[in-house]
Specification:
By secondary structure, the chain is mainly beta.
């Protein structure tokens, strides 16, 4: 199943809106105006089909000459971020190079997947990183309250198994929140309102794509 073209957006922050029936809905505001098609990826030349989208402003002096040449050949202004969206071959004709991708590719009520880089938390222990309970604070326990407990066996296999949950760096990873409700699309303001939180800090880049799970369910229902 092919993925569809989405939008790059910058996370502004969270707020709340009220529906007509008075229901309060927590939403994340995503600024998505200014997505421009930079290039196409085709099956014959690249082995797959995709639309390369650029977003965000940045000084031209911060780009390398090859990057500036790539944007000049496409006829677009240099963009801060460039990402690819896999799509069906027939979608390439809908999004020409140098054309802007409108927010109207989404509609209120759509289900979307939002991908971003989670906030970095630094080096953390097992209680914060993995949600472990720690040790009792009674019965003679001391200096061991937030430890993770035993991590291996002495005899067999005599080593720590790969994947053991231990203390370490937390966050700063690629995270996708799936099947979120798109509450509103405000084209005049260039923003999308997505229900609930999305990965990353305010000002961070996120990718908004049509929900993969929703597409699978629709395909099964049609079959």
């Amino acid at each position: 199943m092919h993925r569809k073209v989405g939008l790059l957006a910058q996370k502004i922050g969270m707020t709340q809106i009220f529906r007509e029936d008075g229901t309060r809905v927590p939403v994340t505001v995503l600024f998505a105006k200014g997505n421009v098609v930079v290039a196409h990826r085709t099956e014959d030349r690249d082995g797959y089909t995709a639309v390369q989208v650029g977003f965000g402003e940045r000084k031209a002096t911060r780009f390398t000459k090859p990057d500036l040449g790539r944007f000049k050949a496409a006829g677009v202004e240099p963009k801060r971020w460039v990402r690819e969206f896999r799509c069906a071959p027939e979608d390439l004709a809908k999004f020409a190079v140098a054309a802007e991708v409108p927010l109207s590719i989404f509609a209120p009520g759509d289900r979307v997947d939002v991908t971003g880089t989670s906030k970095g938390k630094g080096y953390q222990g097992v209680m914060k990183r993995h949600g472990m309970a720690g040790k009792p604070r009674t019965h003679g326990v001391h200096e061991y309250f937030r430890h993770g407990g035993s991590i291996g066996m002495r005899k067999t296999p005599g080593r720590v198994l790969p994947g053991m949950r231990m203390a370490g760096r937390m966050g700063g990873e690629r995270v996708t929140e799936e099947n979120l409700e798109l509450v509103a699309v405000r084209e005049d303001d260039g923003v999308l309102l997505v229900r609930g939180p999305v990965p990353g800090p305010n000002g961070g880049l996120v990718m908004v794509r049509p929900s993969h799970k929703a597409a699978i369910r629709a395909a099964h229902a049609a079959a």
